Amino acid sequence: MATEVYLVRHGETMFNQLNKVQGWCDSPLTVKGINDLKRTASALSQVHFDNMYSSDLKRAIDTVHLMKNANVVSDIGKIRKLPEFREVFFGTFEGDDINKTWDQVAMAAGIGHEDDVAKIINQVGLRKFREAAKKADPRHLAEDKDELDERMVRAIQVLGDLTKNEQRVLLVSHGDFIKTLAIKYWDQSDGNHDILFPNNGSVTRGILHDNGKFEIVDYNMDANKL
C-alpha cells in the first residue's frame, strides 16, 4: 500500500526572524509563525490522516501539535518524533548571522564574497556547497552532502517501516531538509542547482511506494492552495 506524505515546514521562529543559522539548534515559534500555521492547520482540518509524525526539534513538535489540534476528522494518538527528519546540521555556524555564514562558505568554495545561498549553490553546485560549509566550519562538524544523503535515505526507510499500514500521514520537518529531499526526489529538480526554499507552514506532498521508492509530487504549497 502506497502512503501519501504531507511534509509541513514548521512555522517561523525567532531565529528565522533574526536571520540566524538554525539547524539542530532551536528557537521558539513567533506570533507570526503561529498565525501562519493556524491557516495551514485550518486548510488541512478536513483531511484525514492515519498518523502524524515530527522531527524531534521543538519548533517542529509545536507545529505538529497545532496541526493535530485543528484536525477534526483524524484520531491521532501520541506523536512519534523522528530525529532522522531534523534540519540540516550547520556545526559551529549554528546560531550565527546567516549572511556572514554564507559569505564564509562562499570564500571556502573559492568564489569570493557572496551572502546569497541560492547564488552560491547555482555557481558551484550542491555538493561543493555542502563541502565548503564543512570546510569553512572551524570544527568541520557541518553535514556534507554524503552525510546528509545517507540520513535522508535512512529517514525514508524509517518512515516506510512506520507507515506500512497507513494511507496518509502528516510529518513536520524543516526548510533545508525538505528542500534537499525535493532536490533528490522531485522530478522537476535537476539534482544539482538550487530550487525555491519552502515557506514556513508550507506543505510538500510525497508518495511513499510499497517498494520503498519515494517521490515528491507537489512542492511548497501555501495554505490557500491546499
From TrEMBL:
<dbReference type="GO" id="GO:0004331">
    <property type="term" value="F:fructose-2,6-bisphosphate 2-phosphatase activity"/>
</dbReference>
<dbReference type="GO" id="GO:0043456">
    <property type="term" value="P:regulation of pentose-phosphate shunt"/>
</dbReference>
<dbReference type="InterPro" id="IPR051695">
    <property type="entry name" value="Phosphoglycerate_Mutase"/>
</dbReference>
<dbReference type="InterPro" id="IPR001345">
    <property type="entry name" value="PG/BPGM_mutase_AS"/>
</dbReference>
<feature type="binding site">
    <location>
        <begin position="9"/>
        <end position="16"/>
    </location>
    <ligand>
        <name>substrate</name>
    </ligand>
</feature>
<feature type="active site" description="Tele-phosphohistidine intermediate">
    <location>
        <position position="10"/>
    </location>
</feature>
<dbReference type="GO" id="GO:0045820">
    <property type="term" value="P:negative regulation of glycolytic process"/>
</dbReference>
<dbReference type="InterPro" id="IPR029033">
    <property type="entry name" value="His_PPase_superfam"/>
</dbReference>
<keyword id="KW-0378">Hydrolase</keyword>
<feature type="binding site">
    <location>
        <position position="59"/>
    </location>
    <ligand>
        <name>substrate</name>
    </ligand>
</feature>
<dbReference type="GO" id="GO:0005829">
    <property type="term" value="C:cytosol"/>
</dbReference>
<protein>
    <submittedName>
        <fullName>Histidine phosphatase family protein</fullName>
        <ecNumber>3.1.3.-</ecNumber>
    </submittedName>
</protein>
<feature type="active site" description="Proton donor/acceptor">
    <location>
        <position position="87"/>
    </location>
</feature>
<dbReference type="Pfam" id="PF00300">
    <property type="entry name" value="His_Phos_1"/>
</dbReference>
<dbReference type="InterPro" id="IPR013078">
    <property type="entry name" value="His_Pase_superF_clade-1"/>
</dbReference>
